[in-house]
Each structure stands twice: as structure tokens, then as C-alpha cells.
Amino acid sequence: MSTSSTHKLAVVTGASSGIGAVYADRLAARGYDVLLIARRRDRLEEVAGRIASAHGRKAEILVADLADPDDLSRVADDLAHRGDIEILVNNAGIARFSPIAKGDAADSSAQIALNITALTRLTHAVLPGLVARDRGTIINLASVLSVHSLPYSAVYSGTKAFVMVFSRGLQAELAGTNVKVQSLHPAVTATEIWEQAGLSVDGFDAAKVMKTETMVDAALAGLDQGEAFTWPSVADEALWKSFAATSDALFAAGETGKPAPRYVA
User: Fold this and answer.
1) Can you give the pLDDT at residue 204?
2) According to the model, what pLDDT value does residue 207 have?
3) Is 23 an active-site residue?
4) Low-confidence ranges of the chain (pLDDT < 70)
5) Which residues, at least 6 apart from 227, have a Cβ–Cβ distance to it below 8 Å?
6) Chosen CATH of 9-251 out of 3.40.50.720, 3.30.450.20, 3.40.50.2000, 3.10.50.40
7) How many whole angstroms separate alpha carbon 172 and alpha carbon 52?
8) Domain ranges within the chain, ordered by starting residue
9) Residue of 23, 32, 152, 156 marked active site
10) How far apart are the first and last CA of the chain?
């Protein structure tokens, strides 16, 4: 990633706190002006003020609830008409943990709206410009739960699995260009998402909880190293390579018009 002082814009969703706020700070430190998007104006103004003071970069705010269709359309239209976007961090997301049989359908819809629909819509908005300029980066926040589901995480895991596969498809689509897509898969990170989900981060084994700043710094290190998929807390790189290779092999094995022998009488 370039750190020159020329004008370049990084867009960060969910930027009022947690991972988004840290991304905004780190990207500003690398010389980017930032556009901060979230629901809470007071929090956005606070983050923008810190960035301007600490890094001397322009920090613009855009107040919007990306789960609201009208707000999402307004933001997507804004981004589509900007010609200076270099990075989009699709960070906004929510978690609502509950078994489907006992959960609220509205909670499931809200997760899908923010974790999938908003991420996809904003990617649609910025990608044509990035391709036309043949440069830029999209960072999509997935999760370790993109490859695993717990008895209470079916919807959340499903949304993050979408992010992973969506990112993988984009990477294939953009092969041969200078536009990059990073799929980021953190484990438990100390952010407000747990309280919003009705849990407390204090309930986790402290040894398994990563500080927000540590996670973002690791993610950016992975981006600098050219990683397409970054697992900040996974030390054994071979695990992901094996998973991806098995996925490819399973797909290839299904490319036949004949039923598997076990299904033939």
C-alpha cells in the first residue's frame, strides 16, 4: 500500500467505534483522507476530530444506517460518483446469536441486511471506478465463523460465509487487474459487537480475545504481504491453504453429469 502524501480516499463503514475506528486511524496514518460512515453522528465526529488532530488528514463523515434501504441507496449513490476512492473497508456488521427455533426473524433479517446486502451494494458502487482506474483495494470483514457454525450462529455464520465466497469470486473476477480484494477473518475481537449481541466479551477466555488495534494491525500486515485471505489469529498458514484446496477439489469432483455410484441401485 502506498504511503505517499497525494490525495487518496479510504472509505470505512461502521467507523464510529471498534474495528472501523481503528482502520480509519491506521489508514489516515498511512496518508489517506477518510470518509467515515456509521449511524452515530457524535461518535463519527469524535473519530474524525482525533484523525485530523493526530494525522492532519481530512476526515469526512456520512451519517447513515446501512441496514435501512433508503440510507443505503443514498450512500451507494454518493460513493459511485466519487473518483478518488482507493480503499473501501466493508466493516459494518452486526451479530445476533440465537437458535433459529427460538430467535427473532427480525434479528436474522437485520444481519442479512447489514452483513450481506450493504456490503454487496457498496461493492457494486465503488468497483466500477476502481476497475476503470485499475487500482484500489476492497477489504471485506468476514469471520472465523465463515467456515464454522455454532448452535446459535447459523445466520451470522451464514452471512460471513457469504462474505468469504463473495470475496473469492471477486478475486477471480479481478485477476489480471491492479484491484485487490482482501477477505478478513478475525476470531473474538474486543469490540462492542458482543454487547450489542447480548453477550459480554468478559465472558470469553481472555487468552482468546484479541485487542482491536492488534487485529487491525495484523490485517494490514497481511494486506501489505499480498494476502487475499487473512486470518489474524491463525498461525498455521497451511490450514487455510488446505481448506481452499479441498473446496476446489470438491467443486471439481462435482463437475459431472453422472450420479455418484453410492446413489445408483
Assistant:
1) 66
2) 76
3) no
4) 1-6, 191-205
5) 182
6) 3.40.50.720
7) 37
8) 9-251
9) 156
10) 57
Please give the Cα distance from 152 to 192 (Å, whole number).
19
With cell 484523525, the residue in question is: 51
Q: What is the pLDDT of residue 4?
A: 42
The pLDDT value recorded for residue 202 is 66
- Which cell is 145 given? 465463523
Identity of the residue numbered 259: P
Identify the CA nearest to 158 among candidates 112, 103, 89.
112
E strands present in the chain: 9-13, 33-38, 59-63, 85-90, 136-141, 179-184, 229-230
CB atoms closer than 10 angstroms to residue 99: 11
Can you tell me the distance from the alpha carbon of 108 to that of 130, in angstroms, rounded to the nearest whole number? 32
- The torsion region of residue 176 among left (phi > 0), alpha (psi -120 to 50) and beta comes to left
